[in-house]
Amino acid sequence: MYSRKLTLLLTSSILLVSACQQSPEPKAADLILRGGHIISVDPSFGEVEALAIRDGRIENLGSWSLIRRYAGPDTRVIELEDEWMAMPGFIEGHGHYMRLGETLTQVDLRPAQNWREVVDLVVNAAEEIGPGEWVIGHGWHQGKWERPPEPNVEGLPLHDQLSALTPENPVLLQHVSGHGLFANALAMQLAGIDDETENPTGGEIVRDDDGHAIGMMREDAASLVEAAVAASRAGESAAEQGSKLRRFSELAGDEALRHGITSFQDLGASFLHIDIWKNMATEGRLPLRMYAAVQESSEVMRDRLASYRMIGHGDGFLTVRAIGEKVLDGALGTHGGWLLEPYSDLPRSYGFEVTPLEEILASAKLAVRHKYQMAIQGIGDRAVRELLDIYEASFKSRAERHDWRWRIEHAQVIHPQDLQRFVDLKVIPSVQGIFACSDGLWVTDRLGEQRTRNRGYLFRRLMDMGAVVTNGTDPPVENIDPIASFHCSVTRILPTGQSFFPEQALTREQAIRSYTINNAFAAFEDDVKGSLTPGKYADIVVLSKNLLSVPDHEIMATEVLYTILDGEIRYQRESK
Prior knowledge:
By secondary structure, the protein is an alpha/beta fold.
């Protein structure tokens, strides 16, 4: 009898404790998303019916019967339409933030279909700003023009026509790749460039058969003209310079948020830029989350890296823990990518070792010492191999350390013998899906069909082998448009309608992961972003179509409806 009473007592106690342990009504959420297709990119949750946000974090997600308990009198509920999709905010995996903001104040040459249209755009700009002022443009690419200029040298225009129409304005026109520029006669005069000027190490002043500079500066030769621009601005005060950089940051941030981007990985930040961002983050005015890679000489970095390393400063808005982009080689579009064999359409050239290997090695030693990530540009197969060699030696020097996550930026051409090394060394290929479609129009001319097939833009092969492949658009090289890069990643369809080695297209799921959790992993931030998981930042994009199921031909019609950052709506598309 005593035993039976004790059993009943214990059973009642357990039921009472169990009832008490059932969570009371949860605290009200600030924002709830409900309906549509909410894709968590977290295998534990998959697709869910609703999601609750509180205090800038994902509070919970799952069925509506679960999440409705988080709805309070002040909770805002966004009802997603059936075809809409919510997913983690896009993370731009490789870009140049300040340059993006600056280019939004410059002449945009990307729409030009030929050299004559470029000249017309520059002349119009010169007339607006008046004599003596620099005209700076960006975005031209001779390989994308409808026809080559006449006359030309290696497909590049001569400056004569431009110089004749802009005699009172120095002109600098940045190649879309960022690895070269075109200058008119006055700009070259101010830069001290004449027929006797020698090519700088890691660059080339392109000349005609008579030895005259045509206006094109490949790779490090561009620095000669850029120095002349800097000299013209030497009178700016520190306050004026800081104000201008803040404006660039705000412009870039607005452009990113408009495209559903909530985090931006900057692969070429100066200490000055980082100072600006740190102040803005402290003030709560940095437009989106930044992951910065320092791009300074090893000599400059030596005594400053330790003090600049920071994780999640300003409530998670600024992290500095990488060295990059310190370009080892140049771009394929300007014949600058460093190749193992010569260019098919320029047999005299293997490309350029833009930054000496000794400098890359010195930076790697600093990265090892201060626990920084390396994120160095390697476009050509020679550059990729050299970086893998340096990385492997660095890893062996600290065999006890395991989680390196070092990256090779772009990794566009990889020799088959080096593919497995990415997996074995756990080196991250930081690629740009959109490049397969923008470069696909002309890159087979540079490399030849067979070399392009076997070594070029092998995104699917890398991912299937087990490499953590990331994605981005390298703004302002390409428009900061994740939808365009996603479309190319999964279709490989060129603007002409042809397919560019479609066997290298990613699946829809792979492409979404490459823009979210993979980019977060590549920045050591997969614990706080990259998926819709309870406790992570509430950084979300709502799209007008479901990227997992929308037909290929409708992907580009997908619009960003909401960009939610830190639980707040930072962008909302205007109603049509």
